[in-house]
Amino acid sequence: MRGSLAVPAALAVPALSGAAPALALRGRPSADWGVQAGDVGAHSGLVWVRSDRPARMIVETSATESFRRPTRWHGPLLGPGTDFTGTTRLRGLPSGEQIHYRVLLADPDDPRRTGRPVTGTFRTTSRRRRDGVRFLWSGDIAGQGWGINPELGGWQVYEEMRGRNPDFFLCSGDNIYADGPILPSVTLPDGRVWKNITTPEKSKVAETLAEFRGNFRYNLLDENVRRFNAQVPSIVQWDDHEVRNNWYPGQILNDPRYTEKDVDVLAQRSLRAFSEYYPISTQRPGDRDGRVYRVLRQGPLLDVFVLDMRTYRNANSPNRQPEDATGILGAEQLAWLKRELSRSRAVWKVIASDMPLGLVVADGQTNFEAVAQGDPGAPLGRELQIAELLRHIKHRKITGTVWLTADVHYTSAQHYDPARAAFKDFAPFWEFVSGPLAAGGFPAVKLDGTFGPDQTFVKAPDRPNTSPAETPPYYGEVDIDGDSGELTVRLRQQGGGVLFTKVLQPGRVGQ
Fold first, then answer.
1. Contact 305/340 with Cβ under 8 angstroms?
2. pLDDT in tens, 276-315
3. Dist CA 35 CA 320 (whole Å)
4. What angle do CA 60, 66, 71 make, to 5 degrees?
5. How far apart are the C-alpha atoms of 227 and 222, rounded to whole Å?
6. Sign of the dihedral through C-alpha 415, 417, 423, 425
7. What does each C-alpha distance from 151 to 17, 141, 156, 214 come to in angstroms?
8. Which residue, among 326, 304, 188, 150, has the nearest Cα to 237 in the 3D structure?
9. How far, in whole angstroms, is CA 405 from its chain's centroid?
10. Which end is more exposed in the chain, N or C (fewer Cβ atoms within 10 Å of the end residue's Cβ)?
11. What is the rounded distance in angstroms from the CA atom of residue 386 to the CA atom of residue 384?
12. Phi then psi for 200, rounded to 5 degrees?
């Protein structure tokens, strides 16, 4: 079993409503926002919780739901400095096993006074190849004004994904839309009215730390999300809307909605809230700041390379400069990625990219937001950095690279081949796009021929910002068979089953 489909009875969650869980003034600490697990490995994992008041976080783990002879982990003291959130790292766990955990919140002045335990479960990474791996990915949540609609049961796509029982969920960025206020209602083209849950922090663009925290907290108002989080561990990355649309370091805003014009200040506040609200190892010894890019080892079949195409990029521009050392990754992250790909012994190397490679994503009339800029010729601008990476993968004979992304608010599959490309020095590979989970749908963008993409599948609306009621959410599924090593990608739509399937063979070049 990859995980129990039953929601533990002790899971304490607030009712789906327009109001946040009540902050009780007396009694014991409460964890009404649920629990999450993340960055799970063979012998470790992170567990997250939020309290309603100062409390000591305690985690107990067990091999069974009965919690006989549990192991206890003493976590941090939760207080206003982290918005009462906290994460505890569990170590020394058995590999390939279902871990049941429960979080208790204790009164700091009287450890015997604890709130009702909140339970969750996850499966540690298996070191046995035969066990295989299954995971889901998507992104783009609460965007373009489409929030939690209680009349439609909230974000039911999370319940559908929970039913797929994956080993983990990869969120490819845009976990929030800090620049996208959510209004109480939106009238659809056919006259129907979409009704949103709203909060003060989601009623304007996020600028303060409290407003960014409120944006991340908004998603947890959905009971589907909380049930999903209690069962499926996450691997989370970020992109632009965690701060502001199409942002880059050093940008000074001219948007009249903002009183804080320095995007670096906004990004710093968002990153702090991001690291508070997700179980993610963003801080490492020796790091100058929190770091989102990392590699997650998922056993002999899979390594996941989580990129950050936002924090270290250069300014958005026409993107046609003949030299570009910074690119979209920055020199340090590119060196790290080349080094870690070379070290990887996994059969498959999934590159979790928060932006697509060959899709032309514009930023205004003349500038470009992603890698491609629409010039099908030799690499220019940010394409130079990607060309260097692809050349490295080919010359080091690194097999099994697959690119997964979201960002463009539709789903598609692209095969990149040097036989069709202006740049020839790379081995063929696939890129798969999914999303949005809970945001507006948008038409497909053009392809850039520099790396020879052939779009074998695309499904997108024919007009911008279609509601989730008109364009149901997209998510992707990856299944790696433990016996054959085959990797199967399925592009899915909520309620509509599988839209596209591609089976890739291990160790082959040119598929």
1. yes
2. 999 998 655 444 456 899 999 999 999 999 999 999 999 9
3. 46
4. 25
5. 9
6. positive
7. 11, 18, 11, 22
8. 304
9. 10
10. N
11. 5
12. -55, -40
CB atoms closer than 10 angstroms to residue 181 = 16
Contact between residue 423 and residue 387 where contact means Cβ atoms under 8 Å apart: yes
Per-residue three-class SS string for 177-244: CCCCCCCCEEECCCCCEEECCCCHHHCCCCCCHHHHHHHHHHHHHCHHHHHHHHHCCEEECCCCCCCC
Q: Has this prediction a pTM greater than 0.85?
A: yes
Phi, psi for 238 (deg, rounded to 5): -125, 165
Hunting for tokens 């911008």 — which residue is that?
A: 464
- Specify the amino acid at residue 368: F
Omega before 418 cis (within 30°)?
A: no
Q: Which of 282 and 494 is assigned the larger pLDDT? A: 494
The count of residues in the chain is 511
- Yes or no: say if 436 and 409 are a contact pair by the CB < 8 Å rule: yes
Helix 331-343 to helix 383-395 angle, to the nearest 10 degrees?
A: 20
Query: What separation in angstroms does the CA of 39 have from each of 175, 236, 489?
Result: 16, 8, 22
